[in-house]
Amino acid sequence: MITQAALPAALAFIMFAMGLTMNPGDIRLVFTHPKAMAAGLAAKLLLVPLAGLAVVAVWQPQPDFAVGLILLAACPAGVTSALLTHMAGGRIALAASITALTSLAATLTVPLLVNFGLAMFAGYDRLVEIPVGRMTLGIFLVDTVPLALGLAIQHFWPRLADRSGKVARPVATLLFAVIVVGAFVSQRQTLMDHVGDVVPASLALNLLAMGGAWALAGAIRLELADRIAVVMENGLQNGALGIFVAVTLLGNHAMMVPSIVYAFVMNLTALAFIWSVRRRTAPIPTGR
Fold first, then answer.
1. What is the pLDDT of residue 127?
2. Closest Cα partner for 177 from 79, 109, 81?
3. What pLDDT is stored for residue 209 in this prediction?
4. C-alpha distances in angstroms, 21 versus 34, 128, 140, 227?
5. Does 286 map to a domain?
6. Does 269 fall in a domain?
7. Could you read off the pLDDT of 180-198 as tens digits, one per residue?
8. How far apart are CA 72 and CA 10, in angstroms?
9. What does the angle CA 55 – CA 60 – CA 66 come to, to the nearest 5 degrees?
10. Can you name the residues that pair with 237 across neighbouring β-strands?
11. Which pTM value belongs to this model?
């Protein structure tokens, strides 16, 4: 069972671990290729939220799930995005840069889009109080501050960051899994009752995000490594942040259901994408 004390602490550690394991030197190199960065940010900040709105408009789930989907679409990339980008042969520096910048931007983008979702879909039969200030401060404290702290340690004390990161990264991945499984256990009945509403919508959002990112990257003729990074960053959302905002800041457990479902869906489609890309790029064996 997820507690309101443990959840923000776990998410803060995850973001701190991400900062520790990012290489500032590699991140600077990405800005010499602004086209790939611009495509990744445009897809993450515009395409994915628009895909979330489109999915909600088509599926028309109950209001809490609709807001949960929009919240999820507003989140930055998840803790496993760099690892899975590496497994697919993508450019890790680009993936890490997009994760860092969108995580910093989440302080503004998440409250903005969630408030829009609440106004559009949750104003039913009663006035909904929107804790804008609390939401912004909460995201800043558990998302932006720990990430910035990890990046600062990486910049000023790289050896310490390297040693700490080797431990922090697997612990962060484990914490992410614990958050998702704990959320699943606490909401298993809701998931079973509404599996037909949430699973197809979550899968549709995931496929739209990945497919749209692939099409955008292809349209501007990015290299394959950059294209893979853009796709991974847009298909893998920070479900832990979505769960945190829903449970701790909004006090609505139903709104975290899409984040739980998406966390399972996105890893399955990411593995399928990795298999497809590696199969496509594998060298053709030659006979002797």
1. 45
2. 79
3. 96
4. 22, 40, 20, 22
5. no
6. yes
7. 777 777 767 777 777 777 8
8. 18
9. 70
10. 77
11. 0.81
